[in-house]
Amino acid sequence: MLLNSRKRNLLISVLVGVMIWFLPPPEGVDLNGWKLFAIFVGTIATVVLDALPMGAGTLLGLTVAVCTKTMPFKEAFSGYVSEVTWLVLIAFFIAHGFIQTGLGKRIAYWIVALVGKRTVGLAYGLSFADLLLAPAIPSVTARAGGVVFPIAQSLAYTFQSRAEDGTARRIGAYLIMVAFHGTVITSAMFLTAMAANPLAAKLAGQAGVQITWGNWALAALVPGLLSLAVMPWVIMWAYPPELKATPHAVEHARRELHAMGPMSRAEKLMAVGFVGLLALWIFGPLVKIDATTTALLGLAFLLVTDVLSWQDLLKQHNAWETFIWFGALIALADGLNKFGLAAWFGNWAAALLGGTHWGVAVLGLFLIYFYVHYFFASSTAHVGALYLPFLLVGIKLGAPPLMTALAFAFASNLFGGLTHYGCGPAPILYGAGFVSLKDWWRVGFIMSVVNIVIWLTAGVAWWAWLGY
Amino acid sequence: MLLNSRKRNLLISVLVGVMIWFLPPPEGVDLNGWKLFAIFVGTIATVVLDALPMGAGTLLGLTVAVCTKTMPFKEAFSGYVSEVTWLVLIAFFIAHGFIQTGLGKRIAYWIVALVGKRTVGLAYGLSFADLLLAPAIPSVTARAGGVVFPIAQSLAYTFQSRAEDGTARRIGAYLIMVAFHGTVITSAMFLTAMAANPLAAKLAGQAGVQITWGNWALAALVPGLLSLAVMPWVIMWAYPPELKATPHAVEHARRELHAMGPMSRAEKLMAVGFVGLLALWIFGPLVKIDATTTALLGLAFLLVTDVLSWQDLLKQHNAWETFIWFGALIALADGLNKFGLAAWFGNWAAALLGGTHWGVAVLGLFLIYFYVHYFFASSTAHVGALYLPFLLVGIKLGAPPLMTALAFAFASNLFGGLTHYGCGPAPILYGAGFVSLKDWWRVGFIMSVVNIVIWLTAGVAWWAWLGY
Fold first, then answer.
1. Are B78 and A77 inside 8 Å of each other by CB?
2. A114 Cβ partners below 8 Å, 6+ apart?
3. Does B276 lie in the same domain as B178?
C-alpha cells in the first residue's frame, strides 16, 4: 500500500519516538522521564512534519503518554488548567471582539493614516505600540495576544489580506511576523515586559548578581533598539510581503475613517473593555490581579454587554485548535522538566565545556541555552530549569557575572522567536493562520541569528562601555 | 432603559447570587464555601433562566470565583483536567463519526427492515436502534438528533406525514414522540448513554457509592426493557397516530439499505472502531484502561485512519460548548463538596425528614428531584446541582446506598422527557414541528408517571433481587 506524504510523515514520527523509547536512558535520567522525552520528540515530529493537524497530533502524544502510563491523566492534561493556556484562548476571543466591532479596523486606519505610506512604516508602527506598552504589561501573552495581534490582524484585513483565501502573503503574513518578532525583542528590553524576567532576576540574585529594573533597561537599550530597527528589514528580505509600498493607503485610511462615522455602541463598549484590560494589565499587580484573571474579567464584560456572542466564539476554530495543542505541549514540556531531564542536560553542557577558555565556553553555553529552546513550550519553564545552572557554570569559568547574567536573561526572551510554541504570543500569532509552519521556523531561525549577532556584538560593546 | 428578557434574567441571576452572598452562612459552613454556594446558585440561575448561553454563563461563574478569590485559578478550572469532561468532548467526536460515515443510519435501517410492519413495530424498531447505539454514543443529543431523528422523519415522509401540511398526526407525530421517549429511556440504561451519567457516577463516588458501567447496565436492564416495551403502547393510547399499520416500512428500509450499497472504507473503519470502543468500554476495567483512555484511543484510531477529520471536529460547536460548561459546573460542584456544603445540605434535609420512615422520605425526595426538572434546561445542570445532596440525604436516612444512587441516576435521565427543553434531544425533536407544545407536555407528564411506576416497582424488586 502506498502511503501519502502525511501518512509517511506520521510513520516517521512514530518511528523516531519508538527509537528513542528503546534507547537506554542517559545516566541520572529516570526511565519514565526518558519515555516522556521519546513521546515529546515524536509529538514535535508530527507537528514539524505536518503529519497530523496540530491539535490531533498533540492529543495523540497525550494519548500515548496516558496509555503507556508514562504520565497519569491529570498530569498529561494539566496544560488545560494552566493560566497561560486560558490566556491564549481568551486572547483569541478578545481579538475577535476587536474585528467584530470594527474597533480594530478603526485603530488600524488611525495607524495607517499616521505611518501607512510604506509597509515598513506599518511594521515600525506596530513595534512602537508594543514597545510603549512593554514596560507596563508584564504578560507578553496579554500584550501581544490582546493588543498587538488584533491590531496587526485588523491592519491585514484593511489591505484585503486574509489567512483563509490565499491573500495571506499580500501583507498579513509579514505584519504577523513583525508583530511576533517585535514582541520577542520588546519583552527582552524590560524586567517587567515578560513574566519570566523577574524569575531570571531572582535566580541571578541567587548567583550573587543583582539585576534591577534600571540596569536591565539600560543594558537592553542599545541592542534592543538596534534589533527593533533592523527586524522589519530582515523580515522584509527573508519573508517579503507582496505589498511593499502603499502610497494611497494614508488617503484611503482617512477616507475610510470618515466613512466609518462615529463609534457604534458595540465599538464604544469594546473600547471601554480594551482600556479596562490595559489598565488592569498595567496596574493589576498592585491589587494582586494577574493577567489571566484580567482577561477573564474582560471576556465576561464583553459577553454580558453582548459585544461578543458566545455562539460566535464557539466558531473561532483557530482559538479552540490552539487551546488544544498548546495545552498539550505545555504539559509534555513541564513533564520533561519534572522528570529532571533539564537538570541532567545542564550538567552535561557544563561538563562538555569545562576545559575551554571562558569566552568560548560562555559563547557555547549561550548558544546551547538559546537553541535548546526548541524543546521548551514556555520561557518560564526554560528559565526555571536552566538559567541558574548555566549562569553558575559561566561565572565559574571566569565570565563577568553581571554581563553574563543579563545576556542569559535577554536570551530567555529572544529564544521565544524560534518556534510557534516557544512563548505565549507564538501560538496566538501562529494560530491566526497567516504564516506557514515552515516559514515560521525559517524566519524564526534567521531572526535568532540576527538577534544573537546584535546582542553579542553591539550589546557586549555597550555593556563593556557601561562597565558591566 | 427596558431590559430584554435575557438581560432581566441575568439581573435576576446576579441578584440571587448577591443576596445569598450577603446572607450569614449557616452553622458549620465555611465563609468561602458559602460564597462559592452563592456563585454556584447564581451560575445555575443563568443556566436555568437561559440568561446567557451555558458556556458563557458558567465561565462567568468561574470568573467571579477567581476574581473574588473564592477559589484559586487552578481549582476553579480543575474541571478541564477531569477525565469526565474529556470523555464528554471525545464522545461528541465519536458520535460525529457515526453520523458522518453513515454507519449509524445503516444499523438503524437494518433494524427497521426487521420489525417495521406495523406502526408499533416501527416504534420498537426505532427504540431498538437507539438501544443498540446507546452504550456507545454517550451523547444522547447526537444519538437521538443525528441518528434516530433523521430516520423517524424520513419514515414519516414515506407515509406522507409531514409537519407543515396538516398530516403530522398521520404517523410522524407519533414516531417523533416515540423516538423522544425511547431515547429518554435508553439514556437511563447505560452509564455511557448520556453525558451527565458519568457525572452522576462521579458524584455517587463522592458519596462513597461505586457505580460502574456493569452494575448500572444490570440494574437498568429489567425496568429499562419494561419501559421500552410499554412506552409505544402508552403513547399509542395517549397520542394515537391515524395510521396504525405500516406494511411498506420494511420495504422502504430494504430499499434504503440497497441504495446505500456496500460499506465504504470509512464506514468499515468506523465499525472496527465502534467494536473496539464497545469492547474496551466493557472489558477495559479488567486491563485497567478507563473509559476516557478508551475514548482517547478510539479518537486516535479514527483520526489516524482519516475516518474523522480534525478540522471537522473543531466545528462541532456543541462539543466545545459542552466541554466548557461541563468543565465549569464540575469544578464548581467539586468546590462546593470540598467546602462541605453538600454535607451540610444533607444534614439539613435529613433533619427536615428525620421523623419519617426512610422509604417514605426517599420517595418524597425522588419525586421532588424528578419534577423540579420542569425548571431545568439541562440534565447535567440538574445532576450537578442536586444529585449529590439528595443522594446524601437518602443514604443518611438509611436507604440502601447503591440502589438509591442508581434510582436517582435513572431519574436524572427519565425526567428529561418532561419538557421540550429538558434535555438535548428535546429541542431537536420538538423543533421538527410534528407535535404541539401542549401534547408534548401532556404526553411527557403521562410518560413520567408510567416510568416512575415501572422503575420504582419492577425496578426496586429487581434491584432487591440483585442484592443492591
1. no
2. A125
3. yes
Sign of CA dihedral A14, A19, A22, A26: negative
d(CA A365, CA A388): 12
Q: Say if residue B271 is in the same domain as residue B153.
A: yes
B109 found inside a domain: yes
Give how many domains chain B has, as a whole number: 2
pTM across the whole model: 0.82
Tell me which of B319, B340, B372 is where a domain ends.
B319
Tell whether A261 and A306 lie within a shared domain: yes
Question: Do A260 and A168 reside in the same domain of the chain?
Answer: yes
Domain check: are A119 and A189 in the same one?
Answer: yes
Q: Do the Cβ atoms of A36 and A335 come closer than 8 Å? A: yes
Q: Output the CA–CA distances (angstroms, integers) from residue A275 to A280, A420, B363, in the order listed.
A: 9, 28, 56
Asked if B9 and B58 sit in the same domain, the reply is: yes
A245 falls within a domain = yes
Interface test with A, best of B77, B82, B287 (most A CBs within 10 A): B77
Query: Which positions in chain A have a beta carbon within 8 angstroms of at least one beta carbon in chain B?
Result: 10, 52-53, 55-56, 59-60, 62-63, 66-67, 73-74, 77-78, 80-81, 83, 86, 289-290, 292-293, 296-297, 299-300, 303-304, 310-311, 313-315, 317, 320-321
Residues of A in contact with B310 (CB under 8 A): 52-53, 55-56
Count of CB atoms within 10 A of residue B262's CB?
6
| B107 and B72 part of one domain | no
Query: Which DSSP letter does residue B29 get?
Result: -
Q: Are the beta carbons of A460 and A366 closer than 8 angstroms?
A: no
Any domain includes B338 = no
pLDDT in the model for residue B350: 67
pLDDT given for residue A1 in this prediction: 47
Dmax (CA) of chain B: 69
- DSSP one-letter code for B49: T
Domain range for B239: 83-319
- pLDDT by position in tens, chain B (length 468): 456 788 899 999 999 999 999 999 888 788 898 999 999 889 988 877 878 988 999 999 999 999 999 999 999 999 999 887 887 788 778 877 877 888 877 876 776 788 778 889 889 988 988 898 888 777 787 778 767 887 788 778 777 888 888 999 999 999 999 999 999 999 999 998 888 899 999 999 999 999 998 999 999 999 999 999 999 999 999 999 998 887 777 888 888 889 989 999 999 999 999 888 877 766 766 787 777 888 899 999 999 999 999 999 999 887 898 889 888 987 887 787 678 776 676 667 667 776 778 888 889 889 888 988 876 767 887 888 789 888 988 888 888 999 999 999 999 999 999 988 778 788 778 877 899 888 998 999 999 999 999 999 999 999 999 988
Distance CA B243, CA A48 (A): 61
What CA–CA distance (Å, rounded) separates B431 from B32? 42
| Residue of B82, B296, B312 best to disrupt the A interface, most CBs of A under 10 A | B296
For residues A221 and A283, give the distance between their C-alpha atoms in angstroms, rounded to a whole number.
Answer: 24
Can you tell me the distance from the alpha carbon of B290 to that of B284, in angstroms, rounded to the nearest whole number? 6
- A190 and A152 part of one domain: yes
Residues of chain B with C-beta less than 8 angstroms from the C-beta of A431: none
- Rounded average pLDDT per 10-residue block, chain A, 468 residues: 78 94 87 92 88 93 95 95 90 88 87 87 90 85 88 90 93 96 96 88 90 92 97 96 87 88 94 90 83 92 94 92 91 84 80 80 92 88 86 87 95 96 92 94 97 96 91
Please report where in the chains the cell 452562612 appears, as a residue. B25
- The residues facing B245 across adjacent strands are B118
Q: Which of B319, B345, B377 is the last residue of a domain?
A: B319
Task: Please list, in sequence order, all residues whose beta carbon lies within 8 angstroms of the beta carbon of residue A60, skipping any fewer than 6 positions away.
Answer: A43, A46, A52, B300, B303, B304
Do the domain assignments include residue B377?
no
